[in-house]
């Protein structure tokens, strides 16, 4: 605790305010990630098997029915019927995906925003490289995602673990993302970014790399 004094008589006590720590709301354990699921260097789409998911009881009845009928249609090689049923399932935010035994499992789709980092946009320098590196790291892998929040675009915001590797740490150390300090204050993320800066890795090889949030602001006002 400190004091702020105004003149000789008036002093105000100052108490340090601790930052509010975010807590994990729940975890997702995904099916293997498809290459098409990587939108850019900080956003992915994942699918979670509903048979062992806490929300399994919330699956709409029409989706359950369509999934059962689609499996029967595929077994009967009625692919036209199976494709029509798949459209119903996809429209509700689910998907039938083959597991390791080539059995169809009903999975729910989630859009994930990697917590605490901001990668270059697709049209920015290193935007393509960031997407390709994330795809290379995640393709075919199952992920553990700790969900903290959701953003204004409806994406879940979380820490992503890929076989024991922190995906945010990987992208920062590769010099393919910024620590998004406006929304995340973890010191380790700044440390990993600074390591890439010091070694001029990735986008830090550029003389003056533009921040993604500045680029997006320019794009909104039409100056990009």
From TrEMBL:
Q: Which PANTHER family match?
A: EBNA2 BINDING PROTEIN P100, OS01G0166300 PROTEIN
Q: Where do the TNase-like domain residues begin and end?
A: 29-206
The protein's name in its UniProt record: TNase-like domain-containing protein
What is the organism field in this record? Urochloa decumbens
InterPro entries, per this entry?
A: SNase_OB-fold_sf (IPR035437), Staphylococal_nuclease_OB-fold (IPR016071)
Concerning SUPFAM superfamilies, the annotation shows: Staphylococcal nuclease
Pfam families referenced in this protein's UniProt entry, alphabetically: SNase
Using the record, list the residue span of the signal peptide; answer none if the entry has no such feature. Answer: none
Tell me which domain of life the UniProt entry assigns to the organism this sequence originates from.
Eukaryota
